[in-house]
């Protein structure tokens, strides 16, 4: 059996951060990448999980009443996070799921918090086939909420896809709440005008490449939101939005050929090679919540950017050329 990289049992406090996990060569279905059992509290943040073909998930949480999983990147995993047997406390939240067959798997009569509530902030990116896979639950309830920007904007919320396996939901399974938004999220959200993007399945921030889900909630009609916004103009479909901001797909964002970046991951210096026709450009480096960390000009074909002062983690670098369209790549700072 393959070794579990992080296997923690009966600890008072656990923190796992700024790590890269890949398990492509491990035997199928045998091990998770992080296993937390009987932990009083835990905080798992700013990690990368790739190619984890495990029935136990990239992260496996057992009998751990309170914890936070935040700002992690999940890609090409069988199960992103699996929880079982009283695993979740009232303060449990998880951010940024991506491209897993099942983002969450909750089984074995897991109690979702003391009151049967699982808090899932709406800034999550659920792109999996089964966002929430629920087995053998007597009852459960989800709080899926969006942090309100300010009074003159709508509160936009959407429920995750739920796959029920012999589970009984309580009435009003999705409960919407509001909370104050912090500065970093505010900067992320206001990089485009949400009022012009209502009724879209996905909203792509043009400078960071972040994708955000903003369909209106079932309880509020588009007309009601439009009335609150003073009849703000709607973008009728995704194609018009993509054309406006120069993006067609995530692949185009990450694989465009206007510039090349190396090394990746990086320790101290990024080397940016720009195609000759695009010389004299502006660069901006953002963290995963869209906060600007560095900026400057690129005036040579080969440019060097020092990132040694950045904390370890995942970043997006946006190169703004003379045509005004951003070109975004993602990199890992070790």
Give a written overview of the molecule.
With 334 residues, the protein is mainly beta. Helices cover 8% and strands 37% of the residues. Strands 1-4-7-10-12-14-16 form a seven-stranded parallel beta sheet, with no helix packed on it. A four-stranded parallel beta sheet has the order 2-5-8-11, with no helix packed on it. Strand 25 and strand 26 form a beta hairpin. Mean pLDDT is 56; it is low at 87-93, 108-130, 138-160 and 165-256.
What's this entry about, in short?
This protein has helices at 183-189, 222-228, 238-245, 250-255; strands spanning 6-9, 14-17, 20-22, 34-37, 42-45, 48-50, 59-62, 67-70, 73-75, 77-84, 93-94, 100-107, 117-121, 130-135, 141-145, 162-165, 174-175, 203-204, 211-212, 259-262, 269-274, 281-287, 292-298, 302-306, 313-320, 326-333. It has 334 residues and is mainly β. It folds into two domains: 6-175; 255-333, Sandwich (Immunoglobulin-like).
- Distance, first to last CA: 29 Å
Q: What integer is the average pLDDT?
A: 56
Q: What is the 3D shape?
A: elongated
> Helical region count?
4
What's the SSE pattern? EEEEEEEEEEEEEEEEEHEEHHHEEEEEEE
What is the chains' assembly state?
A: single chain
Q: In which range does the helix fraction lie? A: under 10%
Instruction: Provide the structure class.
Output: mainly beta
Main-sheet strand order equals 1-4-7-10-12-14-16
Number of strands: 26
Largest β-sheet summary = 7 strands, parallel
Rg value: 21 Å
Query: Which parts are unreliable, with pLDDT below 50 for 5 consecutive residues or more?
Result: 87-93, 108-130, 138-160, 165-256
Query: Could you tell me the strand content as a percent range?
Result: 35-45%
Q: How many separate domains make up the residues? A: 2
């Amino acid at each position: 059996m393959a070794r579990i990289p992080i296997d923690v049992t009966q600890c008072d406090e656990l923190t796992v951060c700024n790590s890269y996990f890949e398990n492509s060569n491990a035997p199928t279905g045998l091990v998770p990448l992080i296993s937390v059992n009987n932990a009083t509290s835990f905080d798992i943040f700013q990690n990368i999980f790739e190619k984890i073909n495990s029935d136990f998930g990239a992260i496996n949480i057992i009998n751990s009443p309170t914890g936070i999983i935040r700002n992690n990147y999940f890609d090409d995993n069988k199960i992103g996070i699996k929880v079982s047997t009283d695993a979740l406390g009232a303060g449990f939240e998880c951010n940024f799921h991506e491209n897993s067959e099942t983002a969450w798997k909750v089984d074995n009569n897991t109690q979702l918090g003391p009151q049967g509530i699982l808090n899932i902030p709406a800034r999550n990116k659920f792109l999996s086939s089964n966002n929430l896979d629920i087995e053998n639950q007597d009852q459960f309830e989800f709080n899926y909420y969006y942090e309100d920007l300010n009074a003159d904007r709508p509160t936009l919320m959407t429920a995750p896809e739920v796959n029920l396996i012999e589970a009984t939901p309580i009435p009003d399974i999705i409960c919407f709440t509001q909370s104050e938004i912090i500065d970093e999220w505010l900067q992320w959200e206001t990089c485009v005008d949400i009022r012009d993007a209502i009724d879209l399945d996905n909203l792509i921030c043009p400078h960071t490449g972040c994708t955000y889900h903003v369909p209106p909630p079932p309880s509020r009609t588009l007309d009601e939101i439009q009335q609150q916004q003073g009849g703000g103009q709607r973008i009728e479909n995704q194609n018009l939005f993509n054309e406006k901001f120069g993006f067609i797909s995530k692949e185009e964002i990450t694989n465009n050929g206007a510039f090349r970046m190396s090394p990746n991951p990086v320790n101290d210096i990024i080397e940016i090679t720009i195609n000759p026709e695009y010389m004299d450009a502006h660069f901006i480096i953002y963290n995963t919540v869209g906060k600007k960390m560095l900026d400057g000009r690129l005036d040579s074909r080969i440019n060097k950017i020092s990132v040694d002062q950045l904390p370890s983690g995942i970043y997006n670098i946006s190169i703004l050329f003379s045509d005004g369209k951003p070109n975004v790549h993602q990199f890992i700072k070790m």
